[in-house]
Specification:
The complex is a heterodimer of chains A (about 425) and B (about 900). Chain A has about 425 residues and is α+β, with helices and mostly antiparallel strands. Chain A is about 15% helix and about 40% strand.
Chain lengths: ~425, ~900
């Protein structure tokens, strides 16, 4: 199982190590550093690296490499999923997952890591349970602890740990009982030069924030459950009921959790909410190039497209650009050649555009690469797949909860080729 | 120097202060001090000097303080074993604490202290905790057994903890079950042959129940354990699959992939016409696709596994091509994997789309990726014949871009396309030649030179082009030099009049001015060929080349099946069996896919069923006749038996060249053999070298006596220690050969001792077509390790005694068999009359049905029956007074199907 964990920052320093079995020398990370040097970009370091006696499995999150060391045959996804859980837990506990935050809370970090794995086997990885075992540091709690002499560590066996609903503690009590659900969809698409869709798919999630007293039993039904043919559930969801009736039936964890994630594949017709008109040209023998870009809304069911951000990696030969945005601001980094244009909201009456010229190195030949345009955007109050919640019911408790549901569509990897 | 002294000085002060705080009377101060100690420890400062002071804080009712002290203890116990003993009493006491959290914590921590003295004290508390009333304690104790085993395996066995652990598999609490499975799996890894996880329908049922209720991690352990089980029949297999499929919708990708492994393995047993089989196939695609929308690291592992799944069952993802399209900001390791899968999924139906994508990738920024994309276009051309033309034109478009590295890659792949489809796309040569000057990479230069040489007769200025390369001959890489040498020789053979000078120049460059032995040798060979026999030179150099195969990068089927059993593991990422790379996995058992049930022999034993998925082994007649003629009609003239692999490629004539020649001379030995009742026995061949098998040398051969096939083995112990516990196993093979009994070795086999064993074989084992047909892969185990080797058996051992066909049937059958099943061979220099030949062949169960004499020519009609019921009919024609034989053989293949 997982032998050790090293945290490595972007300058290649190990700033934390934890061993769950015997101690593995940090020199094992040399193999990782070699791979890191070979990689052109930080994210190109291969996730599985063999060394003579160990395997290094790593993830890069928040510019920190979480490098796990294993010695025997262990499923790599198991390790990667666990590392994700570590990242999520740190973020949950410290608000951010940065080197500084980890160093500031180093003792809590060790307490957490000790609690999350035993002999390399996962022990407690659910945020609910961890929080019962080790209280997250807050300024208030630090003060209270110092005054009262109380402790950060729970004295009781976490109640959920062994019950049939391990994700929920008993005796939850709220004065305001509320359950909020966010349907968030990300659209991934590749659009070709001519504007037609090569592939488009939707990654959706339903994130919940449930603060209900007792042991509520919820059911959530959809207007169009047939859209959900490829789903991954939180362990609380009763799978049989879903298979039979297409209803989500579950006893929710307390607090924030991801109820389900789903995938609407490229085989379905996916609506594309924005279009791009572009004309990026270089002429042979000229040291100038033309750049024109116009954005417009497409299938948005009348909702506004907001927080639009366009970015593009221009060819290496481009020295600088001189562009004129009809709205928003743009920046161009002459070193990385990254052009980004913060557009804001698209006004369908007056389409945003960015036009001007690019200057090339004198005498250089016409660039070979065609830049790809990356677009980010948000659309509120709409799930682009058309998914709609029908109703939410609660059983098992007497009070009347406050219920809310919100929809949002975002761009995931939305790329337009030129 | 100074600075570190000063720092040390400050640090010494810090230690002193901490020591005082640790011994403070105030609880809060104590705890803060321990925290500071831990914080120092974590940044690598040596705070071991505080050991006694920290351990003194251990006896506390404050749980946080206790945990912190435990953290410290685990870190330093190894370096301060004597001090660590001081903690033992508290541990033992804590294991009796009324609070289960403290009991569990104590047993958990104790197991982490890798100090022998402490370990001794651990046994009693551990035994109690394994039977604790609280499941939280039991589940912690289960993991502790694995820890203890890692420190002292013998102790765990002696104390009977393994049995207790096995009992926990039937625990009422799912988490306890999951942890017991995890612990046992880890222990089993270092004990490959122990039957720790004895899976039977009852335990499987327990596991499936626990699967529904335990945590995501527990589900992974249980699924991985389930994957090792072989269901009794297809019904059990289906019922397990049904209970595992809901895991495909789990949010944890490792759970999903482990479930995919179980399903991929067990569906192997389901009859393909079963509705459920189709349902299952459909259910597998969406979760795999979903994995690709996760983080890149997850995607990478998923893609490596999908690569295997696509090779095993292409139908699962054949409609999902688009999800493998590359996004420009995917990390390079994801891009390359996606590209590889795109090519594997490429078919006539989607090739247009794929090519459009590949062309797009060829204009990306990342040079490595661009190169791979261009190569991919070439692979598509070779894989999907109908697309070749499109691919070539796409490559030409790319060459027009004049981007240097694109052009070079394109030329390299076009060479391969020429080799796959000769005389089809030569019209593009002119375009290629235009780019000659821009080629600066050896591989591209070599490819271009190959093209010029190969098509020299159609390139007017081929001599000029090649001459231009010759100028800098010594600066070229070996690859280019060799290619240039060959190309100029080809050119000379095609246009001898104009190129004499050129060829002389290159031959002298290669033979006289070069230090490279390969180059010199090749130069000399050409030189001699050209000077002694130009006709032969032409035959050799301009011989028709074999077409390159469609997919050279496919994983070999046995390995693929093994890897399917390891989906989700490191093995699946590296595409190597675990035995090849996991340290300490000596004697890892090779996993196999279970055989499909419902086949005729499936009933009596799990292993003997013939999987339907395997194409029925009906050897192509060329293969078989080649093998048939490989009968050693006389004793081999040399001690070395002919190597059938190469012989098969060269055709039967070569095989018989030596054999029949010495036919008469070998009569004496042949007699001996017959009196012994031995059917046929070539010399022993060394199959396994001692240096490759930790001192075990195996030589062997095959025989057929009394109607039974035998593997004659000679085992020699060349190691320094005694060998025991021999066992043998065969991989599936073309004719279902399998050991009919255990390997009876008189053990122990002492050093330098040799023992001869005769192993009777049956032909009812699992069948899989091998390449070459008579290849047999064998695993031999002893107390040291498991060793693998493969050997070739003479087809003649498969000729059964009742292979004499009725005359009438023979006639009818001969007529019925279509002409394309016929093959003909000539045997030269065989001085044996028809009767002698006939009796000789009969001793090998080749029966003469009839004899005719026409025009001084004897014709023998013969029949052979193979163990799998296939008949081979042959006509042997002997010209009296002429030593040449003609054999026409027909292979009956319609009547018997597997």
């Amino acid at each position: 199982m997982i032998h050790s964990l090293f945290l490595v920052n972007s300058s290649g320093d190990i700033f934390l190590e934890k061993h769950w079995k015997s101690v593995v020398s940090r020199s094992v990370c040399d193999y990782f550093f070699e791979a890191q040097e070979r990689a052109s970009e930080p994210e190109n370091v291969p996730p599985v690296i063999p060394t003579p006696h160990h395997y290094l499995i790593s993830v890069l999150r928040h510019r920190i490499y979480f490098v796990a060391v294993i010695q025997s045959e262990v499923p790599p996804l198991f390790v990667i999923e666990f590392l994700h859980r570590v990242v999520d837990t740190f973020q949950d506990y410290f608000g951010v997952c940065t080197e500084a935050a980890i160093k500031d809370n180093v003792v809590v970090v060790y307490e957490l890591l000790e609690e999350m794995l035993d002999n390399g086997f996962p022990l407690a990885t659910e945020s609910n349970i961890l929080k019962e075992l080790i209280k997250p540091p807050t300024i208030l709690r630090t003060v209270v602890n110092t005054i009262t002499g109380s402790t950060n560590v729970g004295e009781q066996l976490p109640t959920g740990q062994l019950s049939v609903v391990p994700w929920r503690r008993t005796g939850v009590k709220y004065t305001n009982n509320e359950a909020y659900f966010d349907v968030v969809e990300e659209i991934d698409a590749i659009i070709d030069k001519s504007g037609s869709t090569i592939t488009a798919e939707i990654q959706g999630v339903i994130d919940a924030c449930v603060k209900l007293s007792g042991m509520p039993d919820l059911t959530l039904s959809f207007m169009n459950p047939r859209l959900l043919d490829d789903v991954s559930f939180h362990p609380c969801v009763r799978f049989k009921r879903w298979e039979a009736e297409r209803i989500l039936s579950f006893i929710p964890p307390d607090g924030n959790f991801r109820l389900l994630s789903y995938h609407v594949s490229s085989q379905n017709l996916v609506a594309i909410p924005v279009y791009v008109k572009h004309n990026i040209t270089f002429r042979e023998g000229s040291s100038q190039g033309r750049f024109e870009l116009t954005l417009g809304p497409k299938q948005t069911m009348g909702k506004a497209v907001e927080s639009v951000l366009v970015s593009s990696q221009l060819p290496r030969g481009v020295l600088n650009v001189n562009l004129n945005p009809s709205q928003g601001t743009y920046t161009f980094d002459p070193v990385t050649k990254l052009l980004s244009w913060d557009v804001g909201k698209i006004n369908p009456q007056k389409l945003p555009s960015l036009k001007g010229s690019m200057s090339l190195q004198a005498g250089a030949s016409k660039p070979d690469e065609n830049p790809t345009i990356n677009i980010q955007f948000k659309i509120q109050q709409m799930a682009i797949s058309g998914l709609k919640v029908n109703r939410l019911d609660m059983y098992g408790e007497k009070y009347k909860p406050f219920k809310g549901i919100k929809y949002m569509t975002k761009a995931g990897k939305f790329q337009v080729r030129t | 120097g100074n600075l570190s002294i000063i720092l040390n000085y400050f640090f010494a002060g810090e230690i002193f202060e901490l020591k005082a705080e640790l011994n403070s009377d105030k609880k809060e101060k104590k705890k803060e001090a321990v925290k500071k100690v831990i914080a120092s420890m974590t940044v690598g400062k040596d705070v071991s000097a505080l050991f006694p002071d920290v351990v003194n804080c251990m006896q506390t009712d404050n749980l946080e303080l206790k945990k912190l002290v435990y953290l410290y203890l685990m870190n330093y116990a190894k370096s301060q074993p004597d001090m660590a003993i001081m903690a033992v009493n508290t541990f033992v006491k804590d294991c009796e604490d009324p609070n289960p959290l403290i009991r569990a914590l104590a047993v958990r921590t104790m197991g982490c202290i890798r100090v022998d003295k402490i370990t001794e004290y651990l046994c009693e508390p551990l035994r109690k905790c394994l039977k604790d009333e609280d499941p939280y304690v039991r589940k912690t104790a289960a993991v502790c057994v694995a820890k203890l085993h890692d420190i002292n395996a013998q102790l765990v066995e002696d104390q009977g903890f393994l049995d207790t652990l096995k009992d926990l598999i039937s625990d009422s609490n799912p988490m306890v079950v999951a942890n017991a499975v995890a612990a046992l799996s880890e222990i089993a890894e270092s004990h490959p042959n122990s039957n720790l996880l004895d899976l039977n329908p009852q335990t499987i049922n327990k596991l499936l129940t626990a699967l529904n209720e335990c945590t995501e991690w527990g589900q992974i352990f249980i699924l991985d354990c389930l994957a090792n089980y072989t269901p009794r029949d297809d019904r059990e297999s289906q019922s397990i699959c049904e209970r595992v499929t809901p895991r495909l919708s789990h949010a944890n990708s490792a759970v999903v992939l482990s479930a995919v492994k179980v399903l991929m393995k067990f569906m192997e047993m389901l009859p393909k016409d079963l509705d459920y089989y189709g349902t299952l196939l459909k259910k597998l695609a969406p979760p795999l696709v979903t994995l690709l929308s996760a983080e890149p690291e997850l995607q990478y592992v998923a893609l490596r596994n999908i690569n295997l799944i696509v090779q095993k069952r292409p139908e699962i993802l054949k409609h999902e091509m688009k999800v493998f399209f590359v996004k420009y900001n995917d990390p390079i390791y994801v891009k390359l994997e996606k590209l590889d899968i795109m090519i594997r999924l490429a078919s006539q139906a989607n090739i247009a789309q794929v090519l459009a994508e590949l062309k797009e990738y060829a204009t990306e920024v990342d040079v490595d990726f661009v190169r791979k994309a261009v190569r991919a276009i070439g692979r598509c051309a070779i894989k999907v014949e109908q697309s070749a033309e499109r691919c070539v034109s796409t490559l030409l478009d790319l060459i027009q871009t004049k981007v240097n590295y694109v052009v070079q890659e394109a030329i390299v792949v076009i060479k391969d396309i020429f080799r796959k489809y000769p005389n089809k796309y030569e019209s593009v040569i002119a375009t290629l030649c235009e780019n000659l000057d821009s080629l600066d990479e050896p591989e591209a230069r070599a490819a271009m030179i190959w093209i010029v040489g190969e098509y020299a007769e159609r390139i007017d200025n081929a001599d000029e082009l090649l001459e231009s390369f010759l100028e800098g001959f010594h600066d070229e890489s070996t690859q280019v030099q060799l290619q240039l040498l060959t190309a100029i020789v080809k050119l000379f053979l095609k246009k001898p009049t104009e190129t004499q000078e050129l060829v002389q120049q290159v031959l002298s460059l290669a033979t006289q001015d070069s230090d490279n032995p390969d180059l010199r040798d090749r130069g000399y060979i050409y030189w001699r060929l050209l000077s002694t026999d130009p006709v032969a030179a032409k035959e050799v150099v301009l011989a028709e080349k074999p077409l390159i195969s469609e997919e050279t990068d496919l994983i070999e089927p046995t390995l693929l099946d093994e890897l399917i059993c390891h989906i989700g593991s490191l093995a699946s990422v590296y595409h190597k069996p675990p035995s090849a790379f996991v340290e300490g996995s000596r004697g890892v058992q090779h996993k196999r896919l279970p055989p499909r049930s419902g086949s005729p022999e499936g009933a009596h034993s799990g292993g003997a069923a013939i999987p339907e998925a395997v194409p029925a082994v009906i050897p192509s007649q060329g293969d078989l006749l080649g093998d048939l003629l490989n009968l050693d009609l006389g004793p081999p003239t040399t001690g070395v038996a002919p190597a059938p692999t190469s012989a098969m490629q060269m055709g039967a004539m070569d095989l018989l060249g030596g054999g029949l020649d010495s036919l008469v001379g070998g009569a004496a030995l042949n007699c001996n053999c017959q009196t012994l009742g031995w059917y046929f026995l070539p010399h022993l061949q060394v199959w396994l070298l001692a240096m490759k098998a930790k001192g075990l040398e195996i030589a062997g051969t095959f025989s057929r006596r009394g109607g039974v096939i035998h593997m004659e083995l000679s085992l020699t112990n060349k190691a320094m220690s005694v060998m025991t516990d021999f066992a043998i196993q065969f991989n599936r093979n073309s004719f279902g050969l399998a050991p009919a009994g255990p390997l009876q070795v008189l053990t122990p086999l002492s050093p330098n001792q040799t023992t001869e064993v005769s192993l009777p074989l049956s032909t009812v084992g699992p069948v899989m077509k091998m390449e070459p047909l008579n290849n047999l892969q064998v695993a031999v185990k002893n107390n040291i390790d498991v060793f693998y080797f493969s050997c070739l058996y003479p087809i003649s051992i498969l000729f059964v005694e009742d292979g004499k066909m009725e005359r009438q049937v023979f006639l009818a059958t001969w007529k019925d068999i279509p002409n394309e099943n016929e093959a003909q061979f000539h045997i030269k220099d065989c001085h044996l009359n028809s009767d002698a030949a006939s009796s000789k062949l009969q001793s090998s169960n080749i029966f003469t049905i009839a004899k005719r004499t026409v025009d001084n020519q004897d014709m023998l009609y013969q029949s052979i029956k193979l163990t799998n019921g296939i008949w081979v009919l042959a006509e042997l024609r002997l010209q009296a007074g002429n030593s040449n034989y003609t054999v026409s053989g027909v292979l009956e293949r319609e009547r018997y199907r597997f």
